[in-house]
Write a structure and sequence with these properties.
Blueprint: H1 12-68
Length: 70
């Protein structure tokens, strides 16, 4: 039996399924972009806190250094 490809119009059920999959795909993209936005905010805050901690440590070590001199 030879293979013949005939182009057929999608049925109503197939069109409804395609709509559902497109909607689910759009929801997934929205969730992914929201997750990425939250991740970016988290990393930015972590870097800010790290910079503040390093500045405090540098100030504390600079303050402690003159006290050790006699």
């Amino acid at each position: 039996m030879p293979y013949t490809h005939e182009s057929r119009r999608p049925t109503q059920a197939q069109r409804e399924a395609q709509k559902a999959f497109r909607a689910a795909d759009a929801d997934a993209k929205t969730a992914t972009s929201e997750h990425q936005r939250v991740q970016n905010a988290f990393h930015a805050n972590r870097e800010r806190l790290k910079a503040e901690r390093l500045a405090r440590e540098a100030a504390a070590s600079a303050e402690a250094a003159p006290k050790k001199k006699r």
